[in-house]
TrEMBL record, chain A:
Belongs to the ABC transporter superfamily. This is ABC transporter ATP-binding protein. It is found in: Cell inner membrane. SMART domains: AAA. GO terms for cellular component: plasma membrane. GO terms for molecular function: ATP binding; ATP hydrolysis activity. It is a peripheral membrane protein. Residues 5-255, 275-523 form the ABC transporter domain.
Length: 544, 324
């Protein structure tokens, strides 16, 4: 098949002082007409730099120093700015990751799509309006007329991404670059967007350069796969070859870190619950003097769940399902409106704030974002020691304990003197764990603890959690949107939708024979669900 | 449109208590200062016998308790009656109305100039960030900000009025020239040039810094990258996508600074001998003219509230995400 885009020996230099001299080194790649080529890699592998280099939109101070980028035979690296502008949008389209922020919040969707025609064509207004409507219909947006007049904040994430795709494909570019287009979306939305990209690609014969970190997505959509590691291309091949018969050790390690969707054999869990959540409800009200502007959101509605002692209860659901609200109610960061949360014999929901502070030593939380959840101005050791000090431990003892905790979560005990920014994302999440564990809690509530991490780091943290659970006899509430992760770590699963638990049961049962239609839909949406990673089920433990 | 209207009504309702608290607070504060209007009046006419003073107090309603005075004052305000100025010998509303146009003119032109020039310079600095135009503009901004406005005014008078003789040294217009129509407008504009620049420079520095920071922030946002990926030229990226987003904090600042600017005009009006509200306030304080002073505070509070109200509406027009 004809090659549309060909990258030859591309080297992109980073400014002096970066963690490595080159963002990309000697990368050669061909994108053929009518194919989807997935570029996979972890954060920092240079995959987004590749998109930037092709479009001529590299960050300040970063530039291509060697090689060629040929678009249908024309070297893009030698073109002037003005010539590049004629190619951007018209011959190479791009979809970005964050549909929330990738559209101008102050201009209507229709206006922003129409802009593509206004800058690249001489069409008149009526014709542009007609084409915009057709485009919005093509991406299956309901009510294309209404969407045209809508502002980005009035659409859901999936709808915004559809609008973004409509914009990228407006001028029928031969090449479409999709930079993590579904990473910020819910799993069911992701499945629809992937289907849409595939459908439009087949209909228009577009060549798609699809950048992702998710092997599930690769399995779902790729014709060919290119694997990147620290700026180098380590393996290229057909999707089948790379996914099922990886050759390079890095590819093998990455694939081994992908949690399989099939749950491992169940472990023995005590029948007696340590935490009983009974009829918990939480409603958000947004008030106003005028009744019309009042908004009521039933975030959690009459939820009853049990966490068995020493077990892990997974709460899965999409954004807005109320899972994070529930987690915050359990540790009383939010006060539930009704219901009880019994830790042993104590009803946490009924405690006063002061009494609850006493109880926090028994129940601790780990947060999603390891970058945002640590105070950047305090040393890591202080952050970990803070909890015990508040609960009456002498500071010297607490700091010694912090060192112990660092060793427990696999960090260098001497690293307690360092500040959070000196740690990597995975290490920061370990600090978060050490902080929670320093109080020796009975129950750990983990809210998406691995969602912000690369797949290999995610595997390490999950393994650490499993290990801590068996060593410390910890019981855990594990909130996640990722069914693969849930399958691997949870004994029981509760599926939430719109604030309600629609299904709850043993992991193997829920995954093997889902009863509720929403659970079925969720499972059917997991990208690459038919692909079984070619490694044993305890793959989580194999990678380090 | 319904959205903006609803917002307008709500903001309007919320500003009424502000106005009341302000007036009551000021009224009570002025009661704490020793001496009243009658003392000042008697001092002016060179003293008088206690009976006459007593009668004067009765005449101006100063013989009753503070609470009753406040009650009476608020009651009169509700009927839009600002009272009678003992010093000027006419209703306060009349005194204020005479002085209001000069202040409005000065504030309006200074605000517009500071906003426009600050915006333009901010955009320029942000587009050439960390290069010499940016350094020059930022340094200039700092100089403007650090220099007191009366000094600017005096230097302006010394250089342009005294040494060069290009501009008038003070006043609102050529008195006794009897200009009418366009000729008069030009004359007033000529007189207001220096005061406007003097008052605007400090505010210009703030606008410039905010605009520069805001531009730099917006230029890093994802949708600007999208705009560039669409093939827009740098100029169209700025005008079509960055500018309006970057203007949002500027608009907020206009509302916040309206009050400060009114305060700043006291100094500038004094330096340039402009018959404005600021100078009237100063005179009213010196002469213990409680009614006039309260009237000025009432009118300036109304002015600031009005400006903020307009700013709120403008903001709602600019940003579709604002909900009522």
């Amino acid at each position: 098949m004809r090659t549309l885009l060909s990258i030859e020996g591309l080297t992109v230099a980073l400014p002096p002082g970066a963690d490595r001299p080159h963002a990309l080194e000697e990368v050669s790649l061909e994108l053929k007409a009518n194919e989807i080529l997935c570029i996979v890699g972890e954060s920092g592998s240079g995959k987004s730099m590749m998109a930037g280099a092709v479009l001529g939109l590299l960050p300040e101070g970063v530039r291509a120093t060697a090689g060629k980028i040929l678009l249908e035979g024309e070297n893009l690296l030698t073109l002037s700015d003005a010539d590049m502008r004629r190619i951007r949008g018209a011959r190479i389209g791009i979809i970005f990751q964050e549909p929330m922020t990738a559209l101008n919040p102050l201009r209507t969707i229709g206006d922003q799509i129409a802009e593509m025609f206004r800058i690249h064509t001489n069409l008149n207004r009526a014709e542009i309006a007609r084409r915009v409507t057709t485009l919005l219909k093509d991406v299956h947006l309901p009510d294309p007329e209404g969407v045209q007049r809508a502002y980005p904040h009035e659409l859901s994430g999936g709808q915004r991404q559809r609008a973004m795709i409509a914009m990228a494909l407006a001028l029928e570019p031969r090449v479409l670059i999709a930079d993590e287009p579904t990473t910020a979306l819910d799993v069911t939305t992701q499945a629809q967007i992937l289907k849409l990209i595939r459908e439009l690609q087949e209909r228009k014969g577009t060549a798609v350069l699809f950048i992702t970190h998710d092997f599930g997505v690769v399995a779902e959509i790729a014709d060919r796969v290119a694997v990147m590691q620290r700026g180098r291309l380590v393996e290229v091949g057909s999707a089948e070859d790379v996914l099922d018969r990886p050759e390079h050790p890095y590819t093998k390690a990455l694939i081994a870190a992908v949690p399989p969707l099939a749950p491992p054999p169940p472990q023995d869990v005590a029948a007696e619950p340590i935490l009983r959540i009974e009829h918990v409800s939480k409603t958000y009200r947004k008030g106003g003097l005028i009744a019309r502007s009042r908004r009521v959101t039933h975030a959690v509605q009459d939820v009853s769940l049990n966490l068995p002692r020493g077990g892990t209860l997974g709460i899965v659901g999409e954004s807005g399902s109320g899972k994070s609200t529930l987690a915050r109610c359990i540790v009383r960061l939010l006060d539930p409106d009704s219901g009880s949360i019994c830790l042993g014999d104590t009803d946490l929901a009924a405690l006063s704030r002061r009494a609850m502070r006493e109880q926090t030593r028994h129940i601790q939380m780990v947060f999603q974002d390891p970058f945002a959840s640590l105070n950047p101005r305090r040393r890591a050791g202080e952050l970990v020691a803070q909890g015990p000090i508040i609960h009456g431990e002498p500071p010297a003892r607490a700091l010694a304990k912090a060192k112990e905790m660092f060793a427990l979560v696999g960090l260098d005990p001497d690293a307690t003197e360092r500040y959070p920014h000196e740690f990597s994302g995975g290490q920061r999440q370990r600090i978060g764990l050490a902080r929670a564990l320093a109080l020796e809690p009975q129950v750990l509530v983990a809210d998406e603890p691995v969602s912000a991490l690369d797949v290999s780091v995610q595997a390490q943290v999950l393994r650490l959690l499993a290990d801590l659970r068996s060593r410390l006899g910890l019981s855990m509430v594990f909130i996640t949107h990722d069914l693969r992760v849930a399958a691997q770590i949870c004994d029981r699963i509760a599926v939430m939708q719109g604030g309600v638990v629609v299904e709850e049961g043993w992991t193997a049962e829920v995954f093997g024979a889902p009863r509720h239609s929403y659970t079925q839909a969720l499972l059917a949406s997991v990208p690459g669900r038919d692909w079984v990673p070619p490694v044993q089920a305890d793959a989580l433990l194999a990678v380090s | 449109m319904m959205r903006v209207l609803l917002l307008a009504l709500r903001r309007l309702a919320a500003s009424l208590p502000t106005l009341f608290v302000l007036l009551a607070g000021l009224f009570l504060l002025l009661q704490l200062a020793p001496g009243d209007t009658v003392d000042a009046l008697v001092a002016q006419i060179g003293g008088g016998d206690p009976r006459m003073i007593e009668e004067l107090r009765q005449y101006y309603g100063l013989d009753v308790s503070v609470a009753v005075q406040l009650g009476r004052y608020v009651w009169r305000l509700l009927q839009l009656d600002l009272g009678f100025s003992a010093i000027y010998g006419k209703p306060v509303s009349e005194v204020i109305l005479e002085r209001l146009p000069a202040t409005l003119l000065l504030m309006g032109s200074a605000l517009s100039f500071a906003f426009a020039a600050g915006m333009a310079l901010g955009v320029l600095a942000a587009r050439r960030v960390n290069r010499w135009p940016d350094t020059l503009i930022s340094t200039l901004g700092l100089v403007f900000y650090a220099t007191p406005s009366f000094w600017f005014g005096l230097m302006g008078i010394v250089i342009f009025a005294v040494k060069l003789g290009w501009l008038p040294a003070g006043g609102l217009e050529e008195i006794g020239a009897g200009y009418t129509g366009l000729r008069r407008v030009a004359d007033i504009a000529w007189h207001l040039l220096l005061p406007t620049l003097t008052l605007a420079l400090i505010f210009l520095a703030t606008y410039l810094r905010i605009m520069r920071a805001s531009m730099l922030e917006v230029m890093n946002l994802d949708f600007v990258r999208t705009a560039r990926a669409k093939g827009l030229s740098p100029r169209r990226v700025i005008t079509g996508h960055v500018l309006r987003n970057a203007l949002l904090p500027m608009v907020t600042l206009v509302g916040l600074q309206a009050g400060t600017m009114l305060g700043g005009s006291v100094v500038v009006e004094s330096v340039f001998a402009l018959p404005g509200l600021g100078r009237l306030a100063y005179e009213a304080v010196v002469q213990r003219d409680l009614n006039t002073l309260l009237g000025i505070v009432f009118v300036s509070a109304l002015l600031v509230i009005l400006i903020n109200f307009i700013v709120d509406l403008l903001y709602a027009r600019l940003d579709p995400r604002i909900v009522t």
